[in-house]
Specification:
Keywords: Amino-acid biosynthesis, Aminotransferase, Arginine biosynthesis, Cytoplasm, Pyridoxal phosphate, Transferase. This protein is an alpha/beta fold. It contains 14 helices and 17 strands. The longest helix has 22 residues. Bound molecules: pyridoxal-5'-phosphate (PLP).
């Protein structure tokens, strides 16, 4: 079946929740993708910041193949060597003390909210969670309560116990904290909100504020974690340690796995039976995550992401100077947003035709979240195509 056959068939059976492109991908290697018609693409989306080590990295493939043949699932009634090793790795690279493994980003945030409330209730606080405007923490009921209003429309009643304040505004958080408050949740770099980094003083201020009030600070590093910004976690750029951190996306190298990490202070409030999951961290996905972390480590992909980012920003600066349509670029490491004058979606569509997968977010932001090991040749191809597309007289949606 070709792209169109698959696209049409998908429409017959799948819920119409996604406005998909009429493209079906059937193979990937590093930062290259092939669609069902045999056309090749350069991938700057990486499955939305998921395949941080590239598609089908041999070490990840062999870890998954080996594990699939040995033991895929056993339930969390039992211990597995893969979960033990992964938890140890996560504790080591994060500087936090405890791990709970989940299946997705939203599920990590849901768990983080539960854990924060459990801690709060044991310390005589309420359950209110303060989140930021323009944030994104997932699409489940509690996570849409923390996020943008557009995702809440039509799904009421929305869970209560949430309050929102503007991002990067410390005094707004301070004003929102009352005796009902248990925690503040923030993305150190907003992803879906348009690749907007937090200010260092803001995150430091949040840390001090939370300590002062005895409440918890939660970092959602689902998009910005796992080497994406050139360090293991975005928090490492800011030198601020949260009480709870959520992970997913890049963690499994493509396998669906997430994690909630927390410090001992929080962990001490958690007891047997407080949370659970059937699949969470099963040997198959844990093996994939271990291999992914090892690849990032062995191939020095944090350093590489930083170097590639510097080089790419230099090249993008040339394009920004050349094209009125481009305003600026922001972000950290290989989590970059090109700010455009108008909607980014028509450019994304033209790039797809030219064999480049990129993404539009927050309207006018062209988001680039490629694999950390994308080559300069591949990026040069993207830059050429972007230059050409922007040089066209009229781009129509
Ligand atoms: C993608 C994302 C989520 C949600 O993850 P899912 O796996 O889609 O549930 C949560 N928080 C942030 C910051 C994200 O980027």
């Amino acid at each position: 079946m070709n792209n169109l056959d698959l696209y049409t068939k998908d429409k017959e059976n799948y819920l119409p929740t996604f406005n998909r492109f009429p493209l079906a991908f059937i193979k990937g290697k590093g930062s290259r993708l092939w669609d069902a018609n045999g056309k090749e693409y350069i991938d700057l989306l990486a499955g939305i910041a998921v395949t941080n080590v590239g598609h089908c990295h041999p070490k990840v493939v062999s870890a998954v193949q080996k594990q699939a043949a040995e033991l895929m699932h056993i339930s969390n009634f039992f211990v597995t060597p893969q979960q033990v090793a992964l938890s140890e790795l996560l504790v080591k690279i994060s500087g936090l003390d405890r791990v709970f493994l989940t299946n997705s980003g939203a599920e990590s945030v849901e768990g983080a909210i539960k854990i924060a409330r459990r801690y709060a209730h044991k310390h005589g606080l309420g359950g209110k969670i303060i989140s930021m405007q323009n944030s994104f923490h997932g699409r489940t009921l509690a996570t849409i309560a923390t996020g943008q209003e557009k995702y809440q429309q039509g799904f009421g009643p929305i869970p209560t116990g949430f309050a929102q304040v503007p991002f990067n505004d410390l005094s707004a958080v301070e004003a929102a904290i009352d005796k009902e408050t248990s925690a503040v949740i923030v993305e150190p770099i907003q992803g879906e909100g348009g690749v907007v980094p937090a200010e260092k003083a803001y995150l430091e201020g949040l840390r001090n504020l939370c300590d002062e009030k005895g409440i918890l600070l939660i970092f959602d590093e689902i998009q910005c974690g796992i080497g994406r910004t050139g360090k293991w976690f975005a928090k490492d750029h800011f030198g601020v340690q949260p009480d709870i951190m959520t992970l997913a996306k890049g963690l499994g190298g493509g396998a669906p796995i997430g994690a909630i990490l927390c410090n001992d202070k929080v962990a001490n409030a958690i007891e047997f039976g407080d949370h659970g999951t059937t699949f969470g961290g099963n040997p198959l996905v844990a093996a994939s995550a271990i291999a992914t972390i090892e690849v990032i480590n062995e191939e020095h992909l944090c350093k590489r992401a930083t170097e590639t980012s510097e080089w790419l920003r230099g090249k993008l600066a040339e394009l920004i100077a050349k094209h009125d349509e481009l305003v600026d670029v922001r972000g950290v490491g290989l989590m970059l947003g090109i700010i455009m004058k108008s909607e980014a979606k028509p450019v994304v569509l033209r790039l797809l035709e030219e064999g480049v997968v990129a993404n539009a977010t927050a309207g006018n932001i062209l988001r680039l979240v490629p694999a950390l090991n994308i080559s300069r040749d591949e990026l040069n191809l993207f830059l050429e195509k972007l230059d050409a597309v922007l040089s066209e007289t009229k781009i129509s949606a």
